[in-house]
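Take a specimen:
=====
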Amino acid sequence: MDIVDIRAIEGPNIYSPKPVVRMILDVGDMDETPTRNISGFNGTLLELLPGLAQHHCCFKSPGGFLMRLKEGTYFPHVIEHVALEILNLAGQDVKFGKARRLKGSLYDVVFGYIVKAPAIKAGELAVRLVKSILCSQKIELDEAIRELARETVEKGLGPSTAAIVSEMKKRGVPVTRIGEGSMVILGYGAHQKRIEATITQNTSCLAVDAACDKTMTKELLSMAGIPVPEGMLVSNEEEAMKAAEKLGFPVVVKPRDGNQGKGVSLNLQNPAMVREAFRLASEHSSKIIVERQIMGKHYRMLVVGGRFICAAERIPAHVIGDGVHTIKELVDITNSDPLRGENHEKPLTKIKIDPVANMVLARRGLTLESIPKKGEVVFLRENGNLSTGGIAVDVTDIVCPENRELAERAASMVGLDVAGIDITTEDIAVPAEKSGGAVIEVNAAPGIRMHLFPSQGRLRPVAEAIADMLYPEGVPSFPLVAVTGTNGKTTTVRMINQIVSAWGLTCGMTCTGGVYIGRQCIRKGDCSGPESARMVLFNPKVQAAVLEVARGGLIRGGLAYDEADVGVITNIAGDHLGIDGVETLEDLAFVKSLVIEQIKPGGVAVLNADDRMSVEIKDRARGEIIFFSTEEDNLVLRKHIGAGGRGVFVRDGGIYFKNCGDESFLMRVKDIPATLKGRARHNVQNALAAAAAAWALGVPSRIIFCALKGFDCSQEVNPGRMNIFEMPGFTVILDYGHNPSGVEAVINTAKSFKPSRMVGVIASPGDRRDQDIIELGRVAGKGFQRIIIKEDADLRGRKPGETASLICEGALRGGLKRDRIEIILNEEEAIASSLENALEGDMIIIFYEHFERALEAVKKYSEKIAKIPGAAGII
């Protein structure tokens, strides 16, 4: 039993709209062995993971999986549930899982996750656990789960970031995490914002530097007339002693550039305490501040975008005596509260027993073994940071206007857009300047956990305030169109891109030709997967995106985005069957339907009413549907419009939009150059799909008309798709047709030109099924009078000549005689042969593997005969 491949799919995918881990598992000779046949297996498994008995499985109540175990289930199913149980024990609340056979002893095992790295390890641990039971070997399961729990906390989003992310998702803003830290990107393209905890992309680096330097902060605040404690910067113990004596006891000693209260000692009453505090602070900084102690309570005031939002009193870590338990035991009891975690993963943090806690106790003549009286409050820290076990009490409603204004002024003076202002004063309801209070610190990246989970008082909408600051005018529109299908994707994407660009937006586009930002190609090649889509979505110049979405990317990487405004399916025909578990046309339709499932509320799915499989999956679409058809009388289209839907269709050579009873004329088909005056029926369909997508976005008809009128078959506008070259006496077409339906569409278009002879230069990807390669050959044999069979440079697992032999077999079945078939495996040589042997009136159609090489071969021939009158011109 071995893992063949394991990876996380972070975006919406064919298994779930949420992230999953996909594991391909080879169970070997355990393929047909149910669990009931392995003596002792079920009992040992449940002993190690008793929580499995509560799994529902496919039943509605707990115990479903236990029932399946007793009946006898198969090991991929067991590993799915074991992985889920391990993840839940490690702190990831997930329930989704699925296991299904791919072929033979290979299985897909899929389960949801929240934090990626430990989730992948959980899948690996699940396999090791099952194998250890089968081999009667011991495994340190508890320790492994504790390590996963630690990593889940360490690599999960912090509470501040998580709260902002949750609020953004409520507003429909897509969120993308960068790496394993707390940096996330909110939104796409030109409208994206970046945050890390409560630091935003608008947070000034200078302001952060100033806030981190406590001496500089005090100087800035003093310049604004804001009260701050008197203090001095020192570099050794003797200087610290002199500073304390000059300022007068009690004093505070703290690092110049510390955070989270680390190294801070308060209420120091004598020189010995100052020496001890200096040593502690020196562990965190080489420069130490000694300042006068401001008496009073400790408050944190949050300012966002220059506006006071809320305030909390911070109470240091403490226990309350009961007259029975020691301080150490009381700490353990307090830490057993489920609201307390090791770090920031829960509303509160566990109280730490460390040298600082012992020092604070010692000052009061206490030790960890002391037993406090009933009701006695024993502090283990002097600062009120939640990160050291403190608690917060919301006091927002009692903060006086003067103190609110004071906090806003402090944030403004330091220059922070999000700031935590620490004020010490006797009563926050009384102006600090009158009560002897002062601003102690101004914090960049303030934690907002205390405002989200106060131990007393109301929680405050701080994440909402930050979201409002980032998007003061609401979430801006970012038009996103995704296009999938078997044939026509690239041309349709390019047409939509041309329309959106004409609309005045900088459009990012991905397709099999490359990644484009505006008119600039930033990467060449087949770029129809999620990685390429991200290049567009996170480019700061992009104002709209049109993405080609291929089958392979959908299966292996999911979608790069959460939801699209418009999802387009051009058609669904037999291609790539027998690959990645996609065995039937229905399987393929299921995969591609993800594009119309992940549509925004109010979004639109564009479907081909002329294509049977596209119609069959219409119920999977979210949002409105626009059907398109080359025939006004298409029954599906008519019923849809009759029921109040929208449609795009052709009538008497004209393209029309229809919405219920309202009909509008767009343009003549013949006015779209790419349709070759209507001869290229497949490009008519592509134009209809593009027009429908643009209509769904709200693009004005005149813009659609102008953009499509300028879309032709040239290599500049639509490279590699029906590119036509006029040679002296014959015509050459370059196209990417690589499946039977695609090749047939080009043949039908070519026939409409009535050439004397049609010659095909053809190949098939080697990873297609034998019968599909043969069928491609049959279509070619039926449509061409002569063919030259080549092979792709990437044989995809085939032997040299194997694919060509299958195409040849198909061509013979199609009725082409053997002497009309030539096999030249090298693409450049095959193209050269077709051109050198062209006859007057020929139309040579080259189905290429590499467009640039094929184009170069055609150009070389054109240059060779350039001196002949009437030589190469490009339509």
Residues 871-875 have pLDDT under 50 and may be disordered. The chain is about 35% helix and 25% strand.
